[in-house]
Amino acid sequence: MDVPRHAVIVMPDHDPAQARKGLRDIHQIDLARGLACANSPTGTAVIMNDLRAHCSPSRQKVIEQAARNLAARAATPCPECRQPGWGRIDWLTGRTCAGCGGDVPFLVRGTLDGCQGCGATVETPTQTAPVSPAQCPACNP
Ligand SMILES: [Zn+2]
Ligand SMILES: [Zn+2]
């Protein structure tokens, strides 16, 4: 559970109302485990990772990246109207089968960037090569 870098929650079996949260010290965790077992109808305790952001460095990294992405987007003006917030609004999908030449839906073909203000969009194909017949719903149903 990567203690003490990550914190844990300790509670009696099936009783989150008695949960002790944010525990990182092994002695505190052991004490909480003993109390939880004593207060549990089954005599058992549940110990789980505390995934609240301030207790989880793993989540903090993901949240930091999301904040950076948001800041970068807020700093990017629309190429048409100059309103801030230009960025990815969807994925382009649909590729061609190398075997039968038919459409292969749902596979990513590229990105669609756009403006929330004026509705301008720019398609950027990133993967245009035909795909293996193994991925084709007609060739490989
Ligand atoms: Zn095909
Ligand atoms: Zn715009």
How would you describe what is shown here?
With 141 residues, this protein is α+β, with helices and mostly antiparallel strands. The chain folds into two domains: 1-75, no CATH class; 77-135, no CATH class. It contains two helices and six strands, in the order ββαβαβββ. Strands 2-1-3 form a three-stranded antiparallel beta sheet, with helices on one face. Strand 4 (87-96) and strand 5 form a beta hairpin. The chain is elongated. It starts with 7 loop residues before the first strand and ends in a 16-residue tail after the last strand. The structure holds zinc ion (2 copies). One zinc ion binds at residues 78, 80-81, 83, 115, 117-118, 120.
Widest sheet: strand order?
Answer: 2-1-3
Mean pLDDT over the residues: 95
Overall, the morphology is elongated
Number of strands: 6
Elements, N to C (H/E): EEHEHEEE
What portion of the residues fall into strands of 2 or more residues?
25-35%
Computed over alpha carbons, the radius of gyration is 25 Å
The amount of helix comes to 10-25%
Please tally the helical runs, counting DSSP H or I stretches of 4 or more residues: 2
Distance between the termini: 43 Å
